[in-house]
Design goal:
This is DMT family transporter. The chain is mainly α. It has one domain. It is built from 14 helices and no strands. Helix 3 packs across helix 11, helix 5 crosses helix 10 and helix 12 runs antiparallel to helix 14. The radius of gyration is 20 Å and the shape is globular. The two termini are 22 Å apart.
Length: 310
């Protein structure tokens, strides 16, 4: 229980960090793909001294499977950025946001396809949390061909985020957060660099304020946000972690209100309540599952004829 308490505290810090992402990107005068590249590249620069010095042995003996899955997670994370950012120019921001936040639904579906049987509370909590995001952002599916393509990109970006979360949870079973994120972010930066070169996105020539905002984005959204999410997913599981990420949407709206002076939507507070209610259901399902597993383990090790609760 103390470990879970620490995980939930770190999860709250992570959500606060990723909630700063949208306001910072909105205030940064640089191409979106370039921003995505630099936040990963700068994170790799910060992690390099620790990863190559204190975790050098772990990286060398990481294991083929863990290393390949870390690289794949980096590719999928880059795919998430590469799909979602263009969708913002093709469809409405509200629709793109609502569709990309289907991540926990994709997470639950992928777990089900892999043979896991998520409890009914997980399905209900996930649906309720996504409904909260829809309440805040709205969703207006257009029949325009370009808008439909943007909708498809945003939906695919949500699925990619689910894949990134699930791959990370698998690697974190055996690898430390530092080793995993170092390999993952390095791969993401390399893939996004290629995307920037192909698309012609300017990688430099920014003023000092822009670089400062990109550095701030790296610290709060990448190092505190994504890295802490990868830290807690081992203990909390992918369902709880991916559902909690939905709090980024109302969190970003409230931060924008405080920092940028933007009036938060009237639906921000009720949407926050609905998302929290959905997250509570997922957490409750996880606790029931853990309690049942612990009870079964106790019964398995109890001597014959001895009551499990004795």
């Amino acid at each position: 229980m103390p470990a879970r308490g620490v995980d939930f505290t770190l999860l709250a810090v992570a959500i606060a960090g990723v909630s700063m992402s949208a306001p910072l990107i909105a205030a940064t005068a640089a191409p979106a793909l370039a921003i995505a590249f630099w936040r990963n590249a700068m994170a790799v620069g910060v992690l390099s001294p620790v990863a190559l010095w204190r975790h050098r042995g772990e990286l060398r003996h990481m294991g083929r499977r863990a290393a390949l899955m870390s690289v794949l997670a980096g590719v999928v994370l880059a795919l998430h950025f590469g799909l979602w950012l263009p969708s913002l120019d093709m469809t409405s921001v509200a629709t793109s946001t609502a569709l990309v936040t289907t991540t926990p639904i994709w997470t639950t579906l992928i777990l089900r396809a892999r043979g896991h049987r998520p409890p009914a509370l997980v399905w209900a909590g996930t649906a309720l949390a996504v409904l909260g995001v829809v309440i805040l952002t709205g969703i207006d599916l257009s029949t325009d061909t370009r808008a439909l393509e943007g909708d498809a990109l945003a939906l695919a970006a949500g699925a990619a985020a689910a894949g990134y979360m699930l791959l990370g949870s698998e690697v974190r079973r055996t690898a430390s957060t530092t080793a995993y994120t170092y390999v993952c972010y390095s791969t993401t930066a390399a893939v996004l660099l290629g995307a920037c070169l192909v698309s012609g996105s300017a990688l430099g020539g920014y003023d000092g304020r822009t670089w400062l905002k990109i550095a701030a984005l790296t610290v709060v959204a990448q190092l505190l946000g994504h890295s802490l999410l990868n830290r807690v997913v081992r203990g909390l599981g992918p369902s709880t972690t991916s559902t909690a990420i939905l709090l980024e949407t109302p969190g970003a709206a409230l931060i924008a209100a405080l920092w940028l002076g933007q009036t938060p939507p009237a639906a921000a507070y009720p949407a926050l309540g609905v998302i929290l209610a959905g997250l509570a259901l997922v957490i409750l399902a996880d606790r029931r599952k853990s309690a049942a597993a612990a009870s079964a383990a106790a019964e398995a090790v109890a001597p014959a004829g001895t009551p499990a609760g004795a």
